[in-house]
Amino acid sequence: MPAPTKRLTALDGLRGIAALVVMFHHVYLVAVPSLRRGGGSAPGSLYWWMSETPLKILTAGSEAVLVFFVLSGLVVALPALRTSRFSWSGFLSGRLARIYLPVWASLTIGTALIWLLPRDLAAVTPGSWVASSNATSTTVTTLLNQVSLTTASYDINNVLWSLRWELAFSVLLPLFAAVAVLVRRRWLLSVAAAFALSLLGLLSNIDALRYLPVFFIGTVMAVRLDSIQEWTRRRIRRPHARRFGIALVVGSLVLLVLHWLARPIAAPGTLPGSILTQLAVLGAAGLVLAAIGVPFLRRALDSRPSQWLGRMSFSLYLIHVPILATLAFLLGDDKWWLVALLTIPLSLLAAWGFHQALERPSHRLARRTAHVVATWTSKITAQMTRW
Chain centroid to CA 196: how far? Predict the structure, then answer.
């Protein structure tokens, strides 16, 4: 059994930056109708600058979620691979508490905002993200359907679609870990296979096939973590190490948004466009690798602002859309700049409060639940063995 690994704090910082990008992405979606009306999508327009240039990395929300998935595959699997006498039942019970309790709280807040502050579709652009992906009314039945995290869409809190796959990965973790251990010597082939499966999922419109292989790439990285760290240490000692680090970071960022940059020649929905879209999976994995092994990036991610964002990341992810959608309906998406100016600080403040009041207590409850269930399971197993 490998020795326990020192916490990779830079990964917390990366998670925080990714959560911030997701929030910027949703603010961008509110702005899109006005940006298109103001100057269209022609080169040189504000929409073009924000959508088809490297600036897109600031609002690449869907791609940032892929970073979350790779991080979960790595960070969630690591204790299972490195902790002696790991309890799967204890892990799963604690994981469910850690996911569900904050999710239920965010749905309660989202529902309360919908009930207290009526949403008028006339205030937003028909067919826009605000109009089509966010509820204008809701019922207790709708709320109960979404608290399970098993439905395909979530109009009370739009971001919950990704938690559905986090939950599925948690349940399937023993299988993912076992397969990753089996293929650890053929890691490059296994990553290529995971990418191919993810691409097939996009082409066939099967979300499970599209997203679950991304978690597997992170799990393979967890299995290979010692080798990754040794490889990066050797790289650091070589001449031109900084150039290599810059190339890895820049290359990963380019892969994340390449399908946006290439839209004039590879339209979305075409085979080339789909391949470029899924290259973001490799970009996400490259960023996680860079966070582990590139010194200048690791230092940036270990900075106080990044670490604070890392602590707030889950709360920020859960709370910003109810606030953003409420303000967009109240003010109108034509005032997207005002919506943005209010949403960003309010979401950061609300995330801090959500973290203190709800997420941290859920973490403590999750740890206690995991310990109790693991102890109980161990006693039952010992009793059955004696029989």
Answer: 20
